[in-house]
Amino acid sequence: MASYPQSVLDEIRSGAFARExxxxxxxxxxxxxxxxxxxxxxxxxxxxxRALGGAPAREGSQVGGPSPGAAEPRPGAGDPxxxxxxxxxxx
Length: 91
Fold this sequence. Notes:
Layout: H1 4-14, H2 16-26, H3 30-41, H4 43-52
């Protein structure tokens, strides 16, 4: 019996994950929507909102984009291309 991480890799390599994701997208992302809504109603999410305040996690955010209300980074701050902000640069 394969481990869970191995089974996930096998699904990716076989193309099964891509086929499932395309079908989910074609269906209007109903399953994803249901899972997201269930996560919003989960008690840990209510506790997170009480502890941190504010809106549900990642509401309105886009994959790869900043979270709503995220501060804009300062130019060069933590920029890997300049080394600024890295422990080795002293900045």
